[in-house]
Amino acid sequence: MSIHQIRVDGITPPAQNALLYETVTVVEGKPILREMVFSPDHQYIYLLSDKQVSRLPVESCEQYSSCSSCLGSGDPHCGWCVLFSKCSRQEACDRWEEPQHFNTRLDQCVDISVTPSNMSVTSPATQLTIRVQNVPALSGGVSCVFEELSETPGEVQAKGPVMCMSPSLRDLPTHTHSYGEKRVVQLSLRSTETGHQFISTSFIYYNCSVLNSCTSCVSSVFPCHWCKYRHICTNNLQDCSFQEGRVSNMEGCPQIIPTSDILVPAGMVRPITLRARNLPQPQSGQKNYECVFNIQGKVQRIPAVRFNSSCIQCQNTSYWYEGDEAGDLPVDFSIVWDGDFFIDKPASMKALLYKCEAQRSSCGQCLKAPSAFECGWCTESRKCLLRQHCPAAEQNWMHHGRHNLRCSHPRITKIDPLTGPREGGTRVTIEGENLGLQVKEIAYVQVAGVRCNPVPAQYISAERIVCDMAEALLPHSPGGPVELCIGVCSAEYRTLSTQTYSFVSPSFSRVRPEKGPVSGGTRLTVTGRHLDAGSAVTVYIDKEECLFVKRTNREIICITPASLSGSGPAPIRLMIDRAEVTNSETKYIYTEDPTITGIEPNWTILNGSTVITVTGTNLLTIQEPKVRAKYGGVETSNLCTVVNDSTMTCLAPGLVYGKPNPPEGALRPDEFGFIFDQVSSLLVLNSTPFTHYPNPTFDPLGNSGILEVKPGSPIILKGKNLIPAAPGTSRLNYTVLIGESPCLLTVSENQLLCDSPDLTGEQRVLIIVGGLEYSPGTLHIYSDSALTLPAIIGIGAGGGVLLIAIIAVLIAYKRKTRDADRTLKRLQLQMDNLESRVALECKEAFAELQTDIQELTNDMDGVKIPFLEYRNYTMRVMFPGIEEHPVLKELDSPANVEKALRLFSQLLNNKMFLLTFIHTLEAQRSFSMRDRGNVASLLMAALQGRMEYATVVLKQLLADLIEKNLENRNHPKLLLRRTESVAEKMLTNWFTFLLHRFLKECAGEPLFMLYCAIKQQMEKGPIDAITGEARYSLSEDKLIRQQIDYKQLTLMCIPPEGEAGTEVPVKVLNCDTVTQVKDKLLDAVYKGIPFSQRPQADDMDLEWRQGRLTRIILQDEDVTTKIESDWKRLNTLAHYQVTDGSLVALVQKQVSAYNIANSFTFTRSLSRYESLLRTSSSPDSLRSRAPMITPDQETGTKLWHLVKNHEHSDQREGDRGSKMVSEIYLTRLLATKGTLQKFVDDLFETVFSTAHRGSALPLAIKYMFDFLDEQADKRQISDPDVRHTWKSNCLPLRFWVNVIKNPQFVFDIHKSSITDACLSVVAQTFMDSCSTSEHRLGKDSPSNKLLYAKDIPNYKSWVERYYRDIAKMPSISDQDMDAYLVEQSRLHGTEFNTLSALSELYFYINKYKEEILTALDRDGYCRKHKLRHKLEQAINLMSGSS
Fold it and tell me: What is the pLDDT of residues 444-453, one digit of tens each?
């Protein structure tokens, strides 16, 4: 409740008797009693509510911060203390009795003005005159405060004004530009006697120099002038070098005059002339004019010629924009001179760059283009072109200037609706192309043989005709297509639709619900047949229109209107266009509106959602009843459920209470009622008081939210407001859950007593009441008895068994010899050791799985992806392992060879010759698999500039391959499985070319993240430098199956040519070899640098720096290397005893006799190992092979690092014993797989998804999949598994598996042996995911298949969904695909040297000359076009050079 403070004396009009000047809230939600009393000093008033005494100050003057709010409040206790600038009581203001010190009238507020009110930032200090009114005598002195800039003494004049010096900003450059055109500074007067600022006003510093255009300069409110030859704005006219360069008004500004559209056809060379005003003539040393165009983010600068001060021309050039999505593109441009002096131009003035052909694929769309574009329809090429681009334009070019302009070959693509009543009136929409340019051209429209009259207002030129159907006179009109003519009904101008229109007779049989309230609002469903016919429907219920919602063939849904004739049955009538549909047997019954007679209980808590029971009448007629409340302008509602016609239950609505502290008493909503469809009488029930009590609150359990209790003991939950002070017997319904189990409750006003269920351990407590959930903490339930009866019995039985076992062992020991005793002890020791190792290994694997995932994900953030350039990427896929291929070099050859190769190129561009050439090569027994891949790659390199032609050839080769596969009766699923033909390798290269952008923008990131994750995870544990085995691996073949003791060290590395203080901390392992450490140091120092641009480990030495002078070079082999029998172990950090935090440096290797002698043996020993690594990383191998350890031929020693090769004959029994159960280490495969799972999932999800983070599916994939479906349809292959397998072999197997196994094809990185082995497992999983066959797995199955056994079914569902989604996508037309391929050729046509590729291909012409010439003779087409003769010409030219 609040107290109102009212003034009855000295009231000014318009208030007559009293003025309410303040309302203060005392106790929220509680009434104030009548008794109240003042304090003795009359400073406070004491008030009573039912439970508390409140003390309120009589006034709160300090709440007013300004003189106007203080004196305007009307509070008689408050006045303005001038020199202290505060609102206070009179006695709280020093020297209040002196004139003007304490003002009480609004017209006495202090007023201030300053002259001048502004100055330039470049001006010197200026004297200001400040006039103040309604202030006391300032004899004590004042100072002028300019915010934090300065404070200067003020000189008080005899007549009252104060004189001050303003600070100059020209000595403060930091303040000049950051504030823009003006900086507003608060100028305040400070009283010397009080030390308070008592009045403020705004003072402006303006800065002309930030205005960088003439128009903004001269239109400034400040005195700014423009120097047009210096292109600056200044307030000082002396800054302009000569008189004619000064501009002070808008008319004198150099500016481009706005003109109508500046039309620029894309690709056409033409000048652009612009009208201007006051263009300055560049002076000596100043650069001439330029036009600067910004087209799709690319800046194009064109020289311009200034004819005179009012005319400028951008010189002849052409302009272009990418893509055909827009027919025209507004382009921003500017005119500059002297490099960056802009001439003013309206911001909205732009050039319109346009392409006639874009978005105008038909004649009608073409001729609809604005006439100013000068586009016309070229009938010969069937394209929209400028006249210059149309051959024989006089006859072939249709444009706006022609008489009787009319597009032929109209086509209808869609009609809507497809059904309608015979009575007519249906408005039919016909869409298509070339549908006339004006509505008067529509000479004739018939829909299903019935006349249809065009509606001019809804006609869209060339694209849409809307017409109204006449009545169908035949009683059983059969229906039919739409027929129309443009101009005349000759064959060229007449068309029929492929869709047909039919006549139907709509009818309805029932409505539901059958009854509803007379106020309406019921969602009514009319059921019948053909209800979606026609173009418009109206439902009438007894002459009133039912508000339409939607309709289908079987239903119409509408919202009933209010009944004008009261309750009772009402007839239903439908109007579908001109057809009237009735049914005398079907009626809708209006019933009396529902009423509310009672609510029990009539209260809830602030949050609401407690159950209330509502009684009334006709409640069943309401479909979606709700209860509502409104408080403080915010409305809330909740749902109700109807039980029967007179009862329903509701969840009470809550109130939104805006204040931070909850109310102490009950609240009444401003409005309370029910939302019953359109029944407005129940929206507000003033007759039913409804109350909201404060929400219950609970204290936390114990001090820290944890309470220890015994099982079965009662739990006390303390709180407030647990039983609202509401009349009646209703109470809040509490539910308390201990863990998942409810407990029996006893509720009192301040606590809940809960009988806990019979549970032990930690259990969370949850309290639920009225939609609120509280968790006061956790119960720790402990048991008194440490041992249960079954446990005691078990211990007793175990003790007895143990006693018997001990006796048996003693007897056995006595009977055994001492040797047997020793053997037993040794075996026992081995078993204990083995058991502890198993336990330790499993525990480590589990711990690693939990900790590594988060750590690895964090390490991946912010890594830059080193993508290879397009040329390097394609070369690595097409010609793997070949660094400098001839197709990258210029061909240095005689003229006759070049001429021969160009002739050969023409032949290759003949489809029949190329197909004959390929088929002939494939028929030769000596034409190996390698030759097939080489020819396919050379062909794709040679045809890079003609990708659309290469695609046609590829499709034909694939079709031939499918035909051959079926003729040989091979299983269809084997198609494209292996690279046995030129077509298959061409397909790989085709995807390689066309998916490059997709890799860069989308799929490359998760692939690189997977590679980095594998590399980092592998390097977190030991990796054997000789065998390539690692502690962390996905491949069983590359798993270290021993316990390797190691420790992580952090080395401080000084980079090459780095100074002290530039150290980089790098994590390494003490078991790493020196070369492994160098690799890790280089990875850290050159993080983000492509591998090819970094120094290599072999070129660097590792120095261990101890103190200022001691520097030790660490090497894999040196004089300290340990040799045991014939095994030589590589040096590690542990061997050198390098400690954590050691300082190391990477330095350029110094070539010396000592270094050569030390490194020679190791280099020679590892040479075979390196060559095997290169073999194992080739794309053809799916499993990595461990290299054999080759003894050094001179010394006879074998190198080892972490594990010795145990296939040698000198293996000791003890070694084998340590590996007895090496399979326990297979758990590490699972831990590694779990750590990398997110990255594998991300890659697979990206590859097998049609929505790629905002990118569209690459056209090539959809196009090739549709081609394979089309081939399957043509050959009547209906087995979905075959189609699935074709697609899998075509894209995932041929492209993605290659890329996953060989990320070095896409990125500039180094792939190690262990990384290759892990990627092979991922690639195998990828292949299994694309397979349709079921893999039956058992204990003998390969570990890589068992590892992902649970994931593969999920991945398979992704693949199936991916193929299904692609099939549902709209097909890509050959025209769109050709345009895309042409664009790809344009972007990459110069990547390879075509003549070099042709020269390499010619090798096969030379090798199989006779066979190819014979094949050309046999083919009729080749004979007709004399292709043999042309090839012989090329052969003769080539042989002439030899």
Answer: 899 999 999 9
Tokens standing for residue 885? 């291929």
Burial of 739 (0-12, 13-18, 19+ CB in 10 A): middle
| Residue matched to tokens 């544990």 | 1021
Query: Which residues of the chain carry a pLDDT beneath 70?
Result: 1-31, 50-51, 171-178, 243, 401, 403-404, 783-791, 814-863, 969-974, 976-979, 1060, 1151-1196, 1205-1225, 1252-1255, 1335, 1338-1340, 1441-1442
Q: How would you class 959 by CB atoms within 10 Å of its CB: exposed for 0-12, middle for 13-18, buried for 19 or more?
A: middle
pLDDT at 1180: 38
Cβ(760)–Cβ(783) below 8 Å: yes
Name the 3-class secondary structure at 1284.
Answer: helix
Q: Which residue has the tokens 């006609």?
A: 459
Q: Centre a 10 Å sphere on the Cβ of residue 153 and count the other Cβ atoms it contains.
A: 13
Q: What is the β-pairing status of strands 150-156 and 162-165?
A: antiparallel
| Backbone torsions φ then ψ of 451, nearest 5 degrees | -60, 140
- Do the beta carbons of residue 891 and residue 941 sit within 8 Å? no
Most distant pair of Cα atoms in the chain: their distance: 131
Q: Hey, what are 31's tokens?
A: 């009434």
Cα separations in angstroms, 713 against 700, 743, 756, 763: 18, 12, 6, 14
Q: What's the gap between Cα 117 and its chain centre?
A: 52
Q: Where are the beta strands (DSSP E) in 817-903?
A: none
Gap between the Cα atoms of 295 and 1207, Å rounded: 69
Residue ranges of alpha helices (H) inside 272-430 are 363-367, 393-396
One DSSP character per residue, 474-507 reads STT---EEEEEEESB-SGGGEEEEEEEEEEE--E
Sign of the four-CA dihedral 1088, 1094, 1097, 1102: negative
**Both tokens assigned to 711:** 């099982």
φ, ψ for residue 871, nearest 5 deg: -65, -50
Nearest CA to 493 out of 532, 445, 561, 457 is that of 445
Structure tokens at 806: 């001990």
C-alpha 690/C-alpha 1218 separation (Å) is: 81
Show the tokens assigned to 1118: 């040196």
DSSP letters spanning 967-1006? HTT--GGGTTSS--SHHHHHHHHHHHHHTHHHIIIIIHHH
Q: Of 1257, 1266, 1258, give the one whose Cα is nearest residue 1287.
A: 1266
Query: How far is it, in rounded angstroms, from Cα 981 to Cα 965?
Result: 12
Give the helix/strand (H/E) hosting 273. strand 270-277
Q: How far is CA 490 from CA 405, 439, 444, 495, 1100, in A?
A: 15, 18, 12, 10, 86
Q: Which residues have C-beta within 8 Å of that of residue 199, sequence separation ≥ 6?
A: 85, 110, 112, 132, 135, 188, 189
d(CA 45, CA 289): 81
Calpha distance 162→137 (Å, rounded): 12
In this prediction, residue 1003 carries a pLDDT of: 87
Taking CA atoms, 557 is separated from 524, 539, 626, in Å, by 6, 9, 22
Element (H, E) at 649: strand 647-651
Phi, psi values for residue 535, rounded to 5°: -105, -20
Dihedral angle sign, alpha carbons of residues 1008, 1014, 1016, 1017: positive
Look at residue 1315 and give its three-state secondary structure: helix
3-state per-residue secondary structure call for 707-727: EEECCCCEEEEEEECCCCCCC
For residue 1218, what pLDDT is reported?
43
Chain segment 1154-1193, per-residue pLDDT in tens: 444 444 434 433 433 444 333 333 333 333 333 444 445 4
